[in-house]
Every structure is written in C-alpha cells, then in structure tokens.
Design goal:
Ribosomal Protein S5, domain 2; Alpha-Beta Plaits; binds adenosine-5'-triphosphate; 2 domains; seven-stranded mixed sheet; 287 residues; 11 strands; alpha+beta; 10 helices; four-stranded antiparallel sheet; binds 4-diphosphocytidyl-2-C-methyl-D-erythritol
C-alpha cells in the first residue's frame, strides 16, 4: 500500500494566547500543497513495526511520528500481525510544512485501511491529536480553519487556482522553541483571519493575500534574516505575497501565473538563498 503524505502551508497564522498546559491557542488558515512524502506499508510475517527512511538524520525508530501513529492504532486494536514501512521524504524536515505530521497522518489512514479497522475520518482525527497538533489537519487536507491547538477544524471552500513557490533556507527551526520564544506582547500585526475566510468564500485571491500574516515572522526573521531576503526576492519577481509557513523557516510565494512562478524559481535557485526550491500548486480534496 502506497500513500502520499502532503505538505501544508499556513496562509494565515495567529496566536491568541497560552494555555495552562503550555500549548498555544491558535487561529490558522491551512492549505495543502502538491508536495509530498511517500509512505509504503506492507504486512510482514513477524510481529512489530519496522521502518526505513531515505534520510539518515530522520529517526527510523519509535521516535518517528510514523512509527508512533501506527503503534497507537495497532495497540488499540490489538493487532498481532507486523508491518514494515518505508518512508521516502521529499518535504523538507523541521521546515514548518508539517512533514512529520503528514507522515503520521498517512500512517493512520494506511493502518486503518490495511487492517479494515473501519474508523471514520473523524475518528482517526480524534486519535491523531495525540501524535501532534497538526496531525488531524493532515488527515483532513484541503483548505481549512484550524483553532484550539490546531485540532478544531472547519473546512473552507478551495482556493482559486494559484501557484506556490517554496523556498527553504539552510537553517532548521524547532517548532517547540519557536513557541517558547514567542513574545506574546510583541508579535507584530495580527492577520485578519475572518477577512481571509470571507475572501476565500468569495473566490477573491487578490484581497485575501493583502490580509495574510504570520505572527511567528518577526521573531524568526530577526534570527534568520535570509527568510526576509527570500520573501523580498519572491515579491520582486511576481509573487502576489510571500510569507513564512508555520514556525519557519520555509517561505512560500503565491502566484497567479505559472510562468511568472517558474521565472521566480529560476532566480531563487541561482541566488543560493534557499537550499530547497520547489515550484508547485495548491492541492484540493478533489485533486
Ligand atoms: C507551527 C505549526 O506548524 C502551524 O501549523 C503548528 O502549530 C505546529 O504543530 P505540530 O508540529 O503538530 O505541534 P506538536 O508536535 O503538537 O507540538 C510541538 C511543540 O510546539 C508547541 N505548540 C504546538 C502547537 C500549539 N498549538 N501550541 C504549542 O505551544 C508545544 O510546545 C509543543 O511541544
Ligand atoms: N516522519 C518524520 N519526518 C521528519 N521528521 C520527523 C519524523 N518523525 C519524527 N521527526 C522528527 O521531528 C522533527 C521535526 O520534523 P518535521 O519535519 O515534522 O517538522 P516541521 O516541518 O517543523 O513540522 P510542523 O510544521 O508540523 O511544525 C525532526 O527534526 C525529526 O527529528
């Protein structure tokens, strides 16, 4: 069984406050893009879970979110058979694109199917939050509003056709540290999430981009100015808007024209500001 684990970008990211358990209340607009890891799952004769990955620096033991997700379901349903999984990563790691979360989502969907557990998407999403705040959304996919710690999801209409240029500089950001270092009193401008939702409902991409924002940006860009350089390059080369995704450091640019995006991708590649440059488009549930 082969599954695609799709990457996400945050079109808008606002943080409302900190909860007693240390997690933050968020209001985010989530969008899946056509960039994915591949997860192959096979039954094996001996019990237990084995995992291999194509990247040496990604753990392939019980620390991997894929492993954790598969184990959670297999323990709950007391599955005695074993599985072997092969994870082929293309989504940059520790990049703000929910790579690990999406891999875990694929494991939930795959194990549910393989062993005919009969869990609905909603039932999978309820379990998924134990693995990570973004995992329920990665099961849902498409365009959505995420509230709570990211697990309270409301589906939105799909975005008007647009193209997404991804640029990840050669730095990694820990999500945990990004939240810990957030200065809740000095976050900069809050994005107009409600305005963005109306724009999406009206199919108005141009007004939507004018309201975009990510409250993580000032803090993370202060540490890694290369993020601002990538944003500026994308906007100077035709992006309607370029913004950091999640807790960074990946920058994405939104384009209304594929050729303009491709031209910007060429300039970005030759600038050497980004280690990974990927030209793609949004992914909708119907794709
Ligand atoms: C930054 C985003 O990627 C935006 O989509 C997400 O909010 C992060 O979601 P995630 O990586 O699935 O997060 P988790 O793996 O659950 O948590 C990693 C760490 O981030 C912090 N965290 C995460 C989500 C949240 N709403 N508040 C938090 O404070 C917690 O300190 C936690 O220890
Ligand atoms: N399947 C996985 N893929 C990548 N990293 C994983 C995976 N499982 C566990 N990890 C660990 O999690 C860390 C962060 O990985 P990940 O790529 O999911 O971060 P991220 O892009 O910041 O995700 P998010 O946007 O959800 O915050 C890595 O440094 C790695 O050690």
């Amino acid at each position: 069984m082969r599954l695609r684990a799709m990457a996400k970008i945050n079109l808008g990211l606002d943080i409302l406050g900190k909860r007693d358990d240390g997690y933050h209340e968020v209001r985010m607009l989530m969008q899946t893009i056509q960039m994915y890891d591949l997860l192959d799952i096979r039954r094996k004769s001996s019990p237990g879970i084995t995992l291999t990955t194509n990247l040496l620096y990604v753990p392939s033991d019980e620390r991997n979110l894929v492993y954790k997700a598969a184990k959670l379901l297999m323990d709950e349903f007391d599955i005695q058979e074993g599985i072997s999984m092969k994870l082929t990563k293309s989504i940059p790691v520790a990049a703000g694109m929910a790579g690990g979360s999406s891999d875990a989502a694929a494991a939930f969907v795959g194990v549910n199917k393989m062993f005919h557990l009969g869990l609905s998407e909603q039932e999978l999403m309820e379990r998924a939050v134990q693995i990570g705040a973004d995992v329920p959304y990665c099961i849902m996919r498409g365009t959505a509003l995420a509230e709570g710690i990211g697990e309270k999801l409301t589906r939105l209409p799909q975005l008007p056709k647009c193209y997404i240029l991804v640029g990840k500089p050669a730095v990694n950001v820990s999500t945990k540290l990004a939240y810990e270092n957030l200065d809740l009193q000095n976050m900069g401008a809050h994005p107009d999430i409600d305005g963005m939702i109306s724009d999406i409902e009206n199919g108005d991409l141009y007004t939507m981009v004018s309201r975009m924002g990510n409250v993580f940006e000032p803090g993370i860009i202060g540490k890694y100015p290369v993020i601002q350089e990538i944003k500026d390059l994308m906007e100077a080369h035709g992006a309607l808007k370029a913004m950091m995704s999640g807790s960074g450091p990946t920058v994405f640019g939104i384009f209304d024209d594929k050729n303009k995006m491709k031209a910007a991708a060429r300039v970005l590649r030759s600038s050497h500001l980004a280690k990974t440059v990927f030209a793609t488009e949004v992914f909708n549930r119907k794709d």
